[in-house]
């Protein structure tokens, strides 16, 4: 898919249908776990992120990953997610779309939302730039933010 990343956590549990791990006896299943600060969302972005990790791990370990989990810090609860073919298709489609944007040098407009405050991509994405306002207004707001 032309992506790479770092998982928060991957659990390897003994499983006779699992994979071999270098330096360990037996075979293991692969189970990705994504950690989030907040609570479960109405939208699917956390699930799609987990599925993207699972697709990459499947490629790395030549295995199938039917399930993963998302742990939410606010509810202190872990939700198991079934990773099915529909979710994988959705993820692949999104990456294809992303690569098309990239090859056309097109940056889609984003809308600032509450979740931007806790997003690790905030400094790169600069979501407030999406709002239509004058350069003068933008610079004044930036200067105010720094005070
Ligand atoms: S900062 Fe950008 S990538 Fe992060 S949540 Fe906001 S719009 Fe999405």
Automatic annotation (TrEMBL):
Zinc-finger among keywords: no
Top-rank lineage group of the source organism: Bacteria
Cofactor remark: Mg(2+) or Mn(2+) required for ssDNA cleavage activity.
Pfam families from the UniProt entry: Cas_Cas4
Cofactor: [4Fe-4S] cluster; Mg(2+); Mn(2+); iron-sulfur cluster
Domain DUF83: 30-126
NCBIfam families, per the entry: cas4
Family per record: Belongs to the CRISPR-associated exonuclease Cas4 family.
Annotated protein name in UniProt: CRISPR-associated exonuclease Cas4
Gene: cas4
